[in-house]
């Protein structure tokens, strides 16, 4: 009998990789926030530092949605564009958050944690891309 789609070993590896990525991107910064005395962040609907941060966050989100939706008409569905766009969007949001925390936040430790979080996003992205290489190519 011929197997269609991805095998069971792929899905086991997938859930392990996604769990590791979530832990690196969300778990490690939360642990560091507690240890370094930074402000605790909400996972969903984070608090904005000021109105500039709120507007910039909305602009980034809307522009990401417009770029992603408009690119669906021109780019092959199986290309790496959507994966890279999905990895770059949180990175741009974190870079903007880093700037706002560095410039306007009362607790100066917050931006240091955001720097660590950006590094962890890059490490996770490289790990996921290296892991996906045999399945894509």
UniProtKB/TrEMBL annotation:
* Entry keywords, A to Z: Membrane, Transmembrane, Transmembrane helix
Q: What is this protein called?
A: DUF4181 domain-containing protein
Transmembrane annotation, as ranges? 12-32, 58-75, 81-100, 112-132
* Pfam families attached to this UniProt entry: DUF4181
Which N-terminal residues, if any, form the signal peptide?
none
